[in-house]
Amino acid sequence: MNTATSHHPEQSPLSEERYLNLLATTYPTVADAASEIINLEAILNLPKGTEHFLADLHGEHEAFQHVLKNASGNIKRKVSEIFGTTIRESEKKELCTLIYYPEQKLELIKANEDDIDDWYHITIHQLVRVCRDVSSKYTRSKVRKSLPQEFSYIIEELLHERTDDQDKAAYVAVIVDTIITTGRADDFIVALCNVIQRLAIDQLHILGDIYDRGPGAHIIMDTLRQYHSWDIQWGNHDILWMGAAAGNDACICNVLRLSLRYANLATLEEGYGINLVPLATFALETYADDPCTEFVPKLLKGHTMDDKTLQLAAKMHKAITVMQFKTEAAIFHRRPEWHMEDRCLLEHIDAKRQVCTIDRRDYAMQSCHFPTIFTPDGSPTPCYGLTPDEADLMQKLHHSFRVSEKLRKHIRTILSHGCMYNVCNQNLLFHASIPLNADGSLKDVEILGERYSGKALMEYTGQLIRAAFESDTPQELKDFAKDYFLYLWCGPDSPLFDKSKMATFERYFLTDKDTYHEEKGYYFQLRNAGEVCDRILDAFGVGGDNRHIINGHVPVHASKGENPIKAGGRLMVIDGGFSEAYHSETGIAGYTLVYHSRGFQLVQHEPFTSAQDAIRRGTDIKSTTQIVEMSTHRMLVADTDKGAELRLQIADLKRLLYAYRHGIVKEKRG
Prior knowledge:
Blueprint: H1 13-26, H2 30-44, E1 51-54, H3 61-69, H4 74-83, H5 89-100, H6 102-112, H7 116-134, H8 140-146, H9 152-159, H10 166-181, H11 185-200, E2 203-206, H12 217-225, E3 230-233, H13 236-246, H14 249-261, H15 266-272, H16 277-286, H17 307-334, E4 349-350, E5 355-358, E6 361-364, H18 388-402, H19 405-417, E7 418-419, E8 421-424, E9 427-430, E10 445-447, E11 450-452, H20 454-467, H21 475-490, H22 504-509, H23 522-526, H24 530-539, E12 548-551, E13 565-566, E14 571-573, H25 583-586, E15 591-596, E16 599-605, H26 611-617, E17 623-630, H27 641-661
Parallel strand pairs: 1-2, 2-3, 3-7, 9-12, 12-14
Antiparallel strand pairs: 1-15, 4-5, 5-6, 8-9, 10-11, 13-14, 15-16, 16-17
Helix pairs in contact: 1-27, 2-27, 4-5, 4-7, 5-6, 7-11, 13-14, 13-21, 14-17, 16-17, 20-21
């Protein structure tokens, strides 16, 4: 489909004529303009495409990929509806698994199937029926663009020919026969399955936190780079990796600490080629006699590690944590306007008394072995900056992050597909929070001497993030932007954090668990109030009767009865705990919010076993669906943001038709 640029209503007659002449280069005749109007009017009356919303993937690439493949259970539902009782449940399961994992499933079937040609005949016809169903809400043009070039013509023919027509049945049968006899059946089946997956989800929204905890954030990014249509609202963990890629040393240390905390080094080493040998060498030398008990990694279910490796990981974990607190303190002192110097807690440790003084109160330390801060006798002249050895290590780690081409490529992808928020079809999407005052009004946040709130805060934050990567950014602004990644990660007024403090130091080192408490900001305290959500929606210009805020960030404790639908339906919190680290906390393994032409459905997922298990045994993610909000009429493209754009294009084309017919613009006939 060709699209016309929308026309500004206040153009002068001269600029109007120039605009129409420009438009005429795309639609050079009356017939071309009229045909496009007909095309766009028809599209307005198609059902709206299906949007899927996911949040907080946290490196769980297998579960994420499976949810994409099965369209959050939608493909299984369609197969059940299409075939009903005409085929057995086991055959439906086999067909679904084939659609999800065509190459791998074909290998198993060919090894066990006695009459493979008969199986090909049956299966191709079944896949064509499923493909016809999922493509029914799209124009032929859009479907055609989704087809692999080598099979485009054949698939189109099969999709638009009905086998109940006797004259056409033989024609279709010959096409299928020829596919099989020419040895192309496997390739054709794979192509059809990929088209079904592609058409089952029209638009994918990721509400932040691709990174940390799970092993495959880089694999998720590789998947998204190939995906047809998606956007992302940056999460705090994404920002941490973006800061690391921009060269913020405190962010680099945080990324490494989190990876070591969960014994998850695959993304760093295998994904991005980060060299951890210097860190291992430094940790073994510096913390040789320290058991580093508080730093033994949290092994997730099914993960094992021998004692020697576990000890090494614990030492590396402690080494990078101490460096993190030092590099953070350097930034907090450099940016006093952030009012975060109270988080420079290394400076409040009394090594001889083994206490840390916070707000004039002494708290017992779990251990006080800091060879890069204190001398063995607890010298009164401690080193709160990096030691020469730590500085040398930091330089090597910094270099490793900066030269990783794959990391740079993935961060560019995140920048090009996302921002801090998005407004789409009367839905306001963001990862975590909009800072509020105690009365629910939008909070002013000071950045570089200016104050921002709500939409302006989110937009300026997005500009700052991009400024850190732009070559033409003035150096002083670039330096601030690079530092600001740390504030976004743990600053009290950050829309990606919005808590009183990040109690990382306290959890590692202090015995008093009361110090671990992190007071949530007013957004989290007030978000159940419909009037508060309405105020936020108004501030972002989101209108309509069925408008919503959709975000993630805070896991929903479904096992304890917490409802992800809040504020009378105004707010949907869709962090259901994709990460294995949260399964015991949430009781489930993630949500998908699905917005199709009939309304909203929330799909609740149980833990995914593995892709291999799905292929061999046909296991699927068990999902339950909750109807959130259903529309009284089937929503059309005309009811969406895309519909508003198309109506503007139609208005422009009608002006072009008028100009052609009145000689204002001449047709450009060949």
